Amino acid sequence: MAAIQEYKCPCCGGAITFDSTIQKMKCPYCDTEFEMETLADYDKELRSEQADDMSWKTDTGDGWREGETEGMRSYVCRSCGGEIMGDENTAAASCPFCGNPVVMMGQFTGSLRPDYVIPFKLDKQAAKEALKKHYMGKRLLPKIFKDENHIDEVKGVYVPFWLFDADADADMRYKASRIRSWSDSNYHYTETSYYAVRRSGSIAFENVPVDGSGKMADDLMESLEPFDFSKAVDFQTAYLAGYLADKYDVDAEQSVERANERIRKSTEDAIAATVRGYTAVARESGSIKLNNGKVKYVLFPVWLLNTTWNGQKYLFAMNGQSGKMVGDLPLDKGAYRKWLFGLTGAIGAAVYAVLYLASLL
Question: What pTM did the predictor assign?
Fold first, then answer.
């Protein structure tokens, strides 16, 4: 026995059947009518759709050159287990990430050699000044915090990043509708027209960053973006002099999912922005295929400031290139309650005024 082909309504999803009286396919749920040719083309599109193909070739970079790591030293944190590296003159008594003691392990070995490095543009004093400016304008910050918050340590750290390049070919399908309303002397009419909208296009992505350090929170590092890659230079160990460099513990293969997530969202948003002129639009399906994928290993400059206030530690980070400062701040609960009470009172007064005016109409 042959299988029976079942068609679903593109408008409401209900099963549609052939109506012999009108010689068309008709949905019994929303009464939408379809020409046979239209459904055949729609079914052909559904059958031709493909799944996402967002695979990467992640074997990138070279190993360290002979003799290049002779002056480098490796340090391991007793608490978080993080491994950092510096030159033989770098004194690393504490971990720049959690502030706990580190142990010097001796000669640095292993790990992939970075392809590029963005050198530090701003110094330690600039980081301290940026922290002071970070406090300004924060009305819910405890007033004594900026005076009593003690900076325990300021460290310049090169943070490992993977940069992903690719061309994204996208094919998206949307369900759209347009509503038209009018009235006569007897009735008010509403007409809803449904459309199947398809968009295809290509977008080139360059230097999509993914943090290669498991000790640095992704949201913290993404808050420091962007870094200007046009200022990057070929890696040389001389750039590490006087600074620490975090050894990546999240490799390129493990970073692919995060890179794809960022590329997928940017692609979907860009394609969706081209669907205009409708009352409502909903994405129905689609696929993204990546071509010419490349991965680079780069070190980004970051100043880390470990501070202590009221027995609690706070970590702040500054983009060593642009000066952008990020970090969590404590909340003055008393000031917050006053602010919340004032906001609630303002909303209540506004609602009362609207209701009073409505009662006068």
Answer: 0.70
